[in-house]
Design goal:
Shape: globular
Radius of gyration: 19 Å
Low-confidence stretches: 290-294
Number of helices: 10
Largest sheet: none
Strand content: under 5%
Structural class: mainly alpha
Length: 294
């Protein structure tokens, strides 16, 4: 039992120290997600200010500061808190003879770096796409995902407004993806992570982008806005589920882009039940609510 507590302590303290070193610029710049997140956020926010899609939307839109808090909570605070739990799970898996390399399907170390990064990006994005569909399809998961869909005005920081339980769901999927890819992240995986942050920020931004022919491959603000639309086609639990890639939606017929004005109501039926404060939203999903959105 002592090894489990030690694993929790080491992971918690290690994540805390790394984050603090990142704040102080004491880690390699390309692994500094703290300042990297801030830089990407400022750049996308500047795009919203100078090239707004919805010109009547305020620079400090509705819930701007709440979503800004969510960015740092979900990306850092919760990650630090939950890191120890995952380390304990890894120890338990090791005791059962299960390792990150045990179900590897692709010998990643035999591939060139660009191929490692591409496979890592595609497989992780597909697993996230599948998880995203589950969040909409199953009512007990939809309750948690409602926090993300309670956004009434889209902006870059809405990217990270999601219930902490979603972290609990997505993290094991990432671990599964790593196991399938030989049990390790590519050496330059930071490129994939920063790209995902930038694409996610842009998808939620008040900037009109569709990327031309690349729209069939890369998710974009025009497409993703309709994922947050108050009204979706009858009989569907959701549309445009893409995270970084739109490819999966086009392949599996879950796209829906009827127009591109950007002026549509956002949310879902019953979104008035979602608490307005972070603390209220923190515990939201564990109480019984009327079924909506699926």
């Amino acid at each position: 039992m002592l090894e489990y507590f030690q694993a929790f302590y080491d992971a918690f303290l290690g994540n805390l120290n790394w984050t603090w070193k990142s704040v102080l610029f004491r880690v390699p710049w390309y692994t500094n997600y703290f300042w990297g997140l801030i830089l990407i956020s400022l750049l996308v926010w500047a795009g919203e200010i100078f090239f707004p899609w919805r010109k009547n939307q305020s620079i400090f839109r509705k819930d701007f500061w709440l979503d800004a808090f969510y960015m740092f909570f979900n990306f850092f605070v919760f990650a630090i808190a939950i890191g120890g739990i995952y380390s304990m799970i890894e120890v338990a898996a090791g005791d059962l003879g299960i390792s990150l390399q045990s179900i590897a399907l692709i010998p990643m170390n035999e591939l060139p770096v660009w191929a490692q990064l591409l496979l890592f990006f595609i497989i992780l994005d597909f697993l996230q796409w599948v998880t995203h569909i589950m969040l909409h399809h199953y009512s007990f998961l939809w309750k948690f995902h409602q926090i993300h869909h309670s956004v009434k005005e889209m902006g870059f920081a809405a990217h990270f407004r999601f219930h902490w339980m979603e972290n609990v769901l997505y993290k094991p999927l990432k671990t599964l993806g790593i196991m399938l890819l030989g049990g390790f992240e590519p050496e330059q995986a930071y490129i994939v992570h920063f790209a995902a942050i930038a694409i996610g920020h842009l998808n939620h931004s008040n900037i009109k982008l569709s990327y031309g022919p690349l729209k069939y491959l890369i998710n974009n603000p025009v497409m993703h806005l309709y994922h947050h639309a108050y009204e979706i086609p009858e009989g569907r639990s959701g549309v445009n589920y893409g995270i970084s890639l739109s490819l999966w939606d086009y392949l599996f017929g879950t796209t829906y882009i009827p127009e591109n004005s950007g002026n549509i109501p956002l949310g879902f039926q019953g979104d008035d039940e979602v608490p307005k404060s972070f603390l209220g939203q923190f515990f939201y999903g564990f109480r019984k609510t009327r079924k909506s959105g699926d």
